[in-house]
Amino acid sequence: AQSVTQLGSHVSVSEGALVLLRCNYSSSVPPYLFWYVQYPNQGLQLLLKYTTGATLVKGINGFEAEFKKSETSFHLTKPSAHMSDAAEYFCAVSDSARQLTFGSGTQLTVLP
Amino acid sequence: DAGVIQSPRHEVTEMGQEVTLRCKPISGHNSLFWYRQTMMRGLELLIYFNNNVPIDDSGMPEDRFSAKMPNASFSTLKIQPSEPRDSAVYFCASSLGQGGQPQHFGDGTRLSIL
How far is the alpha carbon of B108 from chain A, nearest alpha carbon, in Å? Predict the structure, then answer.
């Protein structure tokens, strides 16, 4: 069975500050890992994914995430927050199956 | 390319009425997923199809919920009879159906049962 834990249901950062959203997973097999973003009244959009290969993955809008197997983590970062980054962020894990297991989400607030 | 298309975007109806939500997946995708999102329970997988066949419906809450996929380009989620606790945002997503492939989400249907 797989699971995802997102630490912090709400995170606030100042505009221009580092964004760090935490995700830890459990999986019995090498996982596929994803980050999605959800803006108000919209569906989830894929930010980035890790399948195999390079453990540092770059996504859209300046976000990146690093797969750390020893820590079972896949934290999402962005060096400098923009107001437009305010949204809810979901981490998800999949094994070889088609289903994704989602975390409970982290609401990011960007303060001016 | 067109993304996943859901209709209607908003639905308001009275308790006891039948509700039908519709989804058109991305062309070429062979897996389709229905989710429900609420503040209390977050994002829940209701059912998913592969090659038009239901694979796992363990997330369907009750017999009042049913889903069909008559062909590769169309799926419906039906609630009959509807209840106020069914109020939520319902999302449809599709993917290429292989491990590691991301799911692509529609914009959802916001359902309110009065």
Answer: 6
For residues B11 and B113, the answer to whether their CB atoms sit within 8 Å is no
The predicted pLDDT at position A28 comes to 77
The band of A96, judged by pLDDT with boundaries at 50, 70 and 90, is: low
pLDDT digits 0-9 by tens, A58-82: 999 999 999 999 999 999 999 999 9
The length of chain B, given as a count of residues: 114
Instruction: Check whether the bond before B54 is cis (ω within 30° of 0).
Output: no
Nearest 5 degrees, angle CA A8-CA A105-CA A82?
A: 80
Residue A3 CA to residue A99 CA, distance in Å, equals 12
Q: Which amino acid type is present at position B35?
A: Y
For residue A94, the chain B residues in CB contact (below 8 A) are 99-100
Mean of pLDDT over chain A: 93
CB A33 within 8 A of CB A91: yes
- The end-to-end CA distance of chain A, in Å, is 41
Name the stretches of chain B with pLDDT < 50: none
B106 Cα to chain A: minimum distance (Å): 6
User: Would the CA dihedral through A88, B42, A59, A30 be positive or negative?
Assistant: positive
